[in-house]
Amino acid sequence: MHPTAPIPDPMTxxxxxxxxxxxAWLYNETMGPEYGREQLKFLELVLLPELPQNAAILDLCCxxxxxxxxxxxxxxxxxxxxxxxxxxxxxxxxxxQATYLLEDARTFQSVEQFDGAFSTSASLNHIMxxxxxxxxxxxxxxxxxxxxxxxxxxxxxxxxxxxxxNRIVEGExxxxxxxxxxxxxxxxxxxxxxxxxxxxxxxxxxxxxHLSQPVKTLFYNCLSLRRLTGVRLRLLARFEQMQxxxxxxxxxxxxxxxxxxxxxxxxxxxGFTDISIQTIDGSTLDANHSAHFICRKP
Length: 298
Hints:
This protein is α/β, with parallel strands linked by helices. Helix content is 34%, strand content 26%. The protein starts with 23 loop residues before the first helix and ends with a strand.
């Protein structure tokens, strides 16, 4: 995946939708750990320094929970909220000491009050209307203590129009499975989608098939190298021809490219203040990066 054009994470779901359970196992092994490492660095810069020791934190749309365990180890009390039972099943394995809620982000009401909240990997792009997005903000606002911080990231229209060009942008190949991801965007209605194609290998039935497995594994491991990204994507584009016996399935997830001024107005409407927007590395926002919002409940 292009480092400056992240795709909304299909594993961090907004509402109860078992479609997201379909590739929970795959995300837990691949994209989840990578995204978690990147987003943790951002939280360590903009959120955690503003929170008290042993703060209570809400991970909104937590997915498979890769961000939760390091926060638990740092002494924070974390609640993960997600709409996918499959995602939460992996999150409980990855961070068993956390609290988990199977809830819709648009309707949840938390009994606990949090010192901070975050939503990462462009999860909130799955909210398809501004009214619903405003309601999510309202729910987070009500769940925070006075002075509580909230940060989240979104893919925005200029970025999506530049990068979401209906071509394969990411994917992996292993001896057991392969996947590819193709995003598209329609600027006339600020809507897009990303299409995920999954391939699962069938166990070898012949002696030759068993003997060739180590060679295939070595080859596919080499393809994971960053300098071979172009080769890997070209192979994924015709993977059906390469492995015609592998099981193939498709998933499509719709997203909304909310205009950033409208998002900022929605945050102000529910009461958030001190709103700022930046990139994950703190640079000025442009069409190459997703927008990271940081705000506070007064």
